Amino acid sequence: KCALMETLILRYLERIADHAIFMSNAVNYIVTGKHRPSEDSIVSHTKSS
Question: What does pTM read for this prediction?
Fold first, then answer.
């Protein structure tokens, strides 16, 4: 029962963090007018170098 609660809490914390990143990217775009490159494109770019 405790492990299940820990798993659910971690899942919800990750979801909250994902929403926080989305909101910070939206605010960054509103302020600067530029999109930040996504982490996926950064990772793929560094792997190909």
Answer: 0.62
Q: Residue 18: name the closest of 2, 32, 38, 48 by CA.
A: 38
Pairwise CA distance, residues 19 & 38, whole Å: 15
Question: What is the per-residue pLDDT across 7-42, written as a single tens digit (0 to 9) for each?
Answer: 999 999 999 999 999 999 999 999 999 888 776 655
Alpha-helical regions (H) of 1-49:
2-32, 39-48
Please give the C-alpha separations between residue 9 and each of 2, 30, 49, in angstroms, as whole numbers.
Answer: 11, 32, 38
Name the CA dihedral angle for 5, 11, 14, 18, rounded to a multiple of 10 degrees: -140
d(CA 42, CA 37): 7
